[in-house]
Amino acid sequence: MNGIKRRAIFLDRDGVINRALVREGKPYPPASIDEVQILPGVPDAIQQLKEAGFVLIVVSNQPDVARRTTSRESVEAINAYLAERLSIDRFIMCYHDGGDNCDCRKPRPGMLLTGAREFDVDLGVSFMVGDRWRDVDAGASAGCRTFFIDHGYDEKQPLMSNYRVTSLQEAALIIITELNNEKN
Fold this sequence. Notes:
By secondary structure, the chain is α/β, with parallel strands linked by helices. The protein has one domain: 3-Layer(aba) Sandwich (Rossmann fold), CATH 3.40.50.1000. The protein is built from 5 helices and 8 strands, in the order βββαβαβαβαββα. The protein has helices spanning 42-51, 72-85, 110-119, 133-142, 168-183, and strands at 8-11, 21-23, 26-28, 55-61, 90-94, 127-130, 145-149, 163-165. The strands form 2 sheets. Strands 5-4-1-6-7-8 form a 6-stranded parallel beta sheet, sandwiched between helices. The protein has a two-stranded antiparallel sheet with strand order 2-3. It starts with 7 loop residues before the first strand and ends with a helix.
């Protein structure tokens, strides 16, 4: 390696790449491939970020596995479905529940740190894109700039993010514009 670290985009899965199922104002993951809908603009945004040279890593809490309301196989099948359709470099999942006190569950930065090690990523020039406060906090804790996709969920909001947007497509436009400004 030439000593230059790579840039990454860390992406939450449900609500960023695919539609979260919203019940009573709260987002939930799809339970099976049949419920998966890739959000509008996501394929183009992913392709633009990939062409700009970013490593794309999905980091997602999937506590329903620990809660035994969905299987790990279902989560992995959804990831495989998305991987077939999008240029994602890696899916890193946390299958723990909040009480498990693991290092990987967002808002802790463990999944981002794992991805950064695997791909030789400089977190200071990388981004975290998520739709919940835990995503933003994990990204900030890891040293990334953060995007909060605001879907108006009826839950705690992030105290602070670098950007508040309405979609991954909007986040990608800002990231690529910034990248182009750095080059000029």
